[in-house]
Amino acid sequence: MNARAGFGGGGGPVRIGAYRNDRDLGRELMDALMLARVQFALTAGSHFLFVALTLGLATLVAVMQTRATVSGSVVHARMTRFWGQLYVINYAVGIVTGLVMEFQFGLNWGGMTRMVGGVFGAPLAMETIVAFFIESTFLGLWIFGWDRLNRWAHLALIWVVTLTAYLSAYFVLVANGWLQRPVGYEMVDGAARLTDLGAVMGNPTAVLAFFHVLFGGLLTAGFFMAGVSAFHLFRRTAEVEFFRRSMRIGLLTVMVSVFPVVVFGGMQFAQVQPTKNPRSDDAAAKAAEFAARFGPDDYLAPGLTDAGLATMMTSWTVMVLLALVALVKFPFAGWLVRGRVFHVVMMLAVPLPYVAMLAGWVFREVGRQPWMVYGVLKTSDALSEVSPGWITASFVGFTSLFAVLIAVNAWLLARYARRGPEGARLGAPPPAEPAAPALTATF
């Protein structure tokens, strides 16, 4: 059966190499490849929106509960319940996006699974078995153990949740770091085999990215907390002390985390592949080397890479300026409460960390093209043996689902954030049932 019959009339799967020389089928394949790439970009980027806030907010909630447990502070206990409820909402919806996203590895990227799954899949398996199960189990105990467990045991639960959340992020970044800079493996019969787990786990590309994401999550949570607090203070809430303290915690988190984010981001440029800077001599030399080894292709990073870098740097610059303003004004508590212009600025600044992180992700991922695993496996060769029609259906289904989940998450966060601490139901005792009417006998 020829390539056209297998791809079109027969409807069966066809590998990219089977019809590269057929112009029409090649165009259909490129469309399918682009759809698969865009689908994964949208779903991975959407999932990361949840991850960033989850990492940072879990840490802040744990700190607030520690303060409440140690000192007996009532306001910090109320803050734990309010911000903890927003954390749980974001976490719950984010789980769905993470589980669905991983289906795409087997659905759209079967070639990757066959060739490098033995190495790439190892840290992802560890993330699921070691980190995610512990994190979700202890979070359930934390949610339903309120006022049922010893206060110190309950505090320990949220710290276990927080630490395993960071462990989960680390394992995922180890997997991604291997795609960027493959180490600790050998090729056996056309498939990658893990030879040095330590090299994979300690990959500088992964380690630097982990600390970048760690502080990026704190920065996201800091702007989120400051923005929600600014909303209530702008409306002249009766809960002035509650949101003044929350504003201070949010701004302090921004000030502490914004510069480490920049530092660890800058350190990663030492690990950037030469082809991500098309104007350098190293890029041209590397592209020529790839062309000699793998055949002609566009090995230099596309223009979208520069756009992602520029957007990221602009966003970080604005956030650094806001952090400096907050640092100057931080000692003046009255200004935090009455500064209405500042309240508006902080509300508008909530999306800034998200924009910066997504732009940085574009720079990191798009700049790696045309490689799925840099210098080892091309993205086109990682595509599954499925028809473009199936990939199109997958694209529409996944994208629609993620759009709904993002909308639901934003609506829930806005709804419960607007209600304030009095509307927090996390850890609240169930409403008392009305007493049964007394039975009276009539004679």
UniProtKB/TrEMBL annotation:
Q: Which residues form a coiled coil?
A: none
One Pfam family of this protein, by short name?
Answer: Cyt_bd_oxida_I
* Cellular localization per UniProt: Cell membrane
Recorded hits in InterPro entries, A to Z, give: Cyt-d_ubiquinol_oxidase_su_1
Keywords in alphabetical order, please. Answer: Cell membrane, Electron transport, Heme, Iron, Membrane, Metal-binding, Transmembrane, Transmembrane helix, Transport
Where would you say this protein principally sits, based on its record?
membrane
* TM spans (from-to): 40-63, 84-107, 119-144, 156-179, 206-228, 249-270, 307-328, 340-363, 390-414
Query: How is it placed in the membrane, per its record?
Result: Multi-pass membrane protein
What's this protein's family per the entry?
Belongs to the cytochrome ubiquinol oxidase subunit 1 family.
Q: What is this protein called?
A: Cytochrome ubiquinol oxidase subunit I
- Tell me the organism: Actinomadura fulvescens
